[in-house]
Please model this.
Amino acid sequence: MTKSPPPSEELIRQLSQFDLKVGELALELRAMVLEEVPAAVERLVRVYAFVFWYSLTGRMMDAFCQVVVYPKGVNLMFNRGAELEDPDGVLVGEGKIIRHIKVRRPEDLKNPHLRRFIRAALKHAKSIAKERRAFAKEKESAGGSTKPSTRASAKRRRRSVD
Model:
């Protein structure tokens, strides 16, 4: 694995507002994401929580995962987690799209599902981007403006985490 780049001063400043143990968990998850996907672009945002999200393009719509920092712990969130295969029921969440894995203790970082889901989410994001490009090309050549079925597209894109 490649070593992840050091965190920015802004990231450290934002994490300093949290308990040291929570900040350490967040930095470990960050390192894990960047080890699995060295080409990932990292962006920081403060919303209801402190979030650093990752995409290959730097665009939020292309993000494949996020590290979400709360006062008592960290979640590794998958933007389209509901579309990922999860036969062991590891992912948490009841919404239509987003799922996450809770990380509350250093031992949680040893969960092999973390890295598997990061890789699966990246693969899924790439397939979505490929589908978007193909649709745009098809639309351009046909002169049409119909949108593909999201539900059908999601079914075609389901990916295994193995």
The two ends are 18 Å apart (CA to CA).
